[in-house]
């Protein structure tokens, strides 16, 4: 089982790694769901030598971005790659909640041979489009999808039937990592229920 620790500061990272975190999602300002951290924080995190995936999100709010915002995201990826980052997490949608395929391809091109993860913007895609969206995300070159199943106000079990369909559809195509409300106390039960091998959270290792 791989536990991905979501961090907005560096202070907790050594303890999280010692407690069993296998990877870190690095971001800033978790109060708004996470934003791209600054270069100084990224550089310091890299010196710890830990497996790192970097949040690329230029602002709080929805995931419908202007052309200028997408170019900022491209620049953030470029700068982070020059610093040594090779794994990125992001998502871009259109006004109707469908995938912004054009801009996702733009970002994937900048990631290049690195790793791309589609974040919880996936949970804002209309229900009836998500299975096909999963297929496109996998085909486009993403390695993982981070999902809770729906709004974070409800726990994962609320979306169990839906998540079962997502996980089954993803088999052999793309990895699914579950997140949102997963803690040291409930992680084993969730992993067993959904049959996943990766879990994500701010309290995933206590």
Automatic annotation (TrEMBL):
<comment type="similarity">
    <text>Belongs to the CutC family.</text>
</comment>
<dbReference type="InterPro" id="IPR005627">
    <property type="entry name" value="CutC-like"/>
</dbReference>
<dbReference type="GO" id="GO:0005737">
    <property type="term" value="C:cytoplasm"/>
</dbReference>
<protein>
    <recommendedName>
        <fullName>PF03932 family protein CutC</fullName>
    </recommendedName>
</protein>
<keyword id="KW-0963">Cytoplasm</keyword>
<dbReference type="InterPro" id="IPR036822">
    <property type="entry name" value="CutC-like_dom_sf"/>
</dbReference>
<dbReference type="GO" id="GO:0005507">
    <property type="term" value="F:copper ion binding"/>
</dbReference>
<dbReference type="Pfam" id="PF03932">
    <property type="entry name" value="CutC"/>
</dbReference>
């Amino acid at each position: 089982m791989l536990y991905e620790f979501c961090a907005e500061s560096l202070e907790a990272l050594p303890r999280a790694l010692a407690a069993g975190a296998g990877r870190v999602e690095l971001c800033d300002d978790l109060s708004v769901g996470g934003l791209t951290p600054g270069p100084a924080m990224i550089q310091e995190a890299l010196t710890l030598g830990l497996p790192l995936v970097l949040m690329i999100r230029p602002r709080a709010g929805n995931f419908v971005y202007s052309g200028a915002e997408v170019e900022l995201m491209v620049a953030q990826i470029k700068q982070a790659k020059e610093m040594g980052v090779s794994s990125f997490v992001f998502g871009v949608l259109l006004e109707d909640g469908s995938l912004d395929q054009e801009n996702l391809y733009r970002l994937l091109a900048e990631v290049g041979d690195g790793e791309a993860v589609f974040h919880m913007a996936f949970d804002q895609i209309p229900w009836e489009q998500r299975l096909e969206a999963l297929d496109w995300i996998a085909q486009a070159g993403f390695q993982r999808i981070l999902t809770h199943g729906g709004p974070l106000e409800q726990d994962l079990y609320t979306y169990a039937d839906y998540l079962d369909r997502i996980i089954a559809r993803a088999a052999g195509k793309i990895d699914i990592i579950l997140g949102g409300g997963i803690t040291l106390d409930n992680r084993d039960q969730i992993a067993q229920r959904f049959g996943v091998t990766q879990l994500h959270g701010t309290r995933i290792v206590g």
